[in-house]
Amino acid sequence: MKHGPPASPVIRTPAGIRALQLGLAMSLFVGSLLALTSLDARARTVLDLDTPEETVALQDWGDYWIDTSGNFTPEQVASTPDIPWKPTRGNAIYPVTSGQAMWVRFNVPPAPDAERWYLEVPYPSIDRASLYTLDAAARWNEQRAGDLVAVNKWPVPHRHPLLPIALSAEVPTNYLLRLENGHAFSAPLQFVSEGRLSYSEQRVSLILGIFFGLTGLAALISALGAISLRDAAYGYYALCVTLMGLTQATVTGIAGLHLWPGWPGWSDISTSVLPTLAVSATLLFISAAVSLPERSLRLHWLMAGQAALGVLAAVVLALVPSASRMDIFIPTVLLLEFSSMLVMGWAWRRGDRFAPWLMLAYVPVLAAAGWTMARNAELVPIGFLTQHGMQLGVALHLPIVMLVLMLRSQHRRENIRRIQGLDRVDPATGLINGHVFAERLIRMIARSERLRHQSAVMIIDLVNSEQIQRDFGRKAADELPLHVAERLLSTAREIDSAARLSERRFGMLVEGPFNAEDAATLGPRIVARCLMPYKSLHVDCVAQVHVAYALVPYQGSNAQGLLTQLEERLAAAPSDSKRAVFMLGEIPPGKPPRRTPRKPA
């Protein structure tokens, strides 16, 4: 058996290896080129409107083109073959500006026509959206909506453009959509059935109703607080909440639908004017909330000047073309927000107890505002956070600020009460002073005479202050009267009055009905309580007091005379006396009682 010639061996020379590598590289390059060129030919998402229970996004089913001249008509767009159309994308940010128009073409495949469908442009701030449909006479019919069109003239008055479309169960329907806006925008075009629209609107209405209910309640409470408490912080915050609520009403389309449906011009500029005014009012509120006029008048006027700058910027925003608004709006808002945070931090470092809570309250608002401005700056597409983030932030912000304002008002009232009571209250102990004590004694005597019962008046002297200073130091001697005042307050009832008459003398008015037996037990109880140890002092550092008391009405004496007799009775008591309680009118030791002679029968 003969065998053929042996196979030739493979020659593995360096030149052969290089040729093989070059061939592989060329194959990869050609394959990549073919893959790239086939991207435009890949299968697109098919528009299926046979799911009435869901919202159907256009995705990449349509094509878009930006007309930089802004002059094309639907007839020209439909008849121009060399327009560079590009597939639409759900999360795309389209770089449109003033004087330009974005065209979108799409066709709706045959679908059941039992349900009515709408093309939804979920961007309430868009300037104009026009949907063109070709009728039987080959004419393009227009439906128009947007900020530059009065809401009451929209095909379907709504929070954002909602344009009806006609379905055919047999043939596809072609549409052209023209979108105009002053700056880049992201609007995921979608189709919604009438049944789904009703359900989604009920849910959104619930969320917005809760939000606007909170803002309205906060604004009303703040306005009432400004009137009743005469507090400028409440007034500025009422203005802030009102402007924030109007801003969200504008952004969500509620304002254009219900507040100014016939003012398309104001609907267009309010989305930038109202937020600027809200931030300006926030500066004035923060200045008042952290008491900036009292802390630094110069810094207060600087904040007021920045607020005036914000108002001026709002006026400019209302006058400039829409393409230039973001160039003014974003730097102005960032400057004012940064200044407000700096001022709150400055007040916090200087001891303001409410500044850190205010900073915490504004964190969610600033985060939501930053996300919204990022959308306006073409950095993020439209989504849940860009649509409802500010509402969530304000909902978290409102209760914190209202709590801060309530605590601040309570603190201010306490300070005012202390200041106003300095001429009636001893500032060290909080007890009434001698002048008020004498006034109340006069009224108690008159009340006892009118009601025909007895009350009691007491004078209490601290008699061992010098000994306490020798044994425990001056600090303990200075603290001892404060502890005595505390014990007197704990002994007195709510209807009784305790007073500090001098550095070491106190007084007490005990409302009747009161009898001698009650008075005999009250004096020793006061002495015993003062002799009990105090927590912050040495166990032997206790107060020794002498008590002189009288039942009133007392033998026709007036208030001043009665106080004089009680003071004399305490002065007459020996310093080394073992007795601590003295009753005015008792018989001195060693003297027989005077007997009243009997009248002859």
Distance between the termini: 182 Å
**Main structural class:** alpha+beta
Q: Mean pLDDT score, rounded? A: 84
For the secondary structure, the number of strands is 15
Overall spatial form: elongated
Proportion of strand residues? 5-15%
Sheet with the most strands: spatial strand order: 3-2-4-9-6-7
Please give the radius of gyration in angstroms.
Answer: 43 Å
Outline the biggest β-sheet: 6 strands, antiparallel
Unreliable stretches (pLDDT < 50, length at least 5) are: 1-42, 587-601
Supply the number of helical segments. 16
How much helix is in the residues?
40-55%
Describe the overall structure.
The protein is α+β, with helices and mostly antiparallel strands and 601 residues long. Helix content is 50%, strand content 13%. The protein has helices at residues 14-37, 74-79, 194-229, 232-251, 254-259, 264-289, 292-295, 297-319, 325-349, 355-376, 384-420, 434-451, 465-472, 474-491, 516-530, 559-572; strands spanning 56-57, 63-67, 86-87, 101-108, 117-120, 128-134, 140-145, 162-165, 173-180, 190-193, 455-462, 497-500, 505-510, 545-552, 581-583. The chain has a six-stranded antiparallel β-sheet. Strands 12-13-11-14-15 form a five-stranded mixed β-sheet, sandwiched between helices. The protein has a four-stranded antiparallel β-sheet with strand order 1-10-5-8. It is elongated.
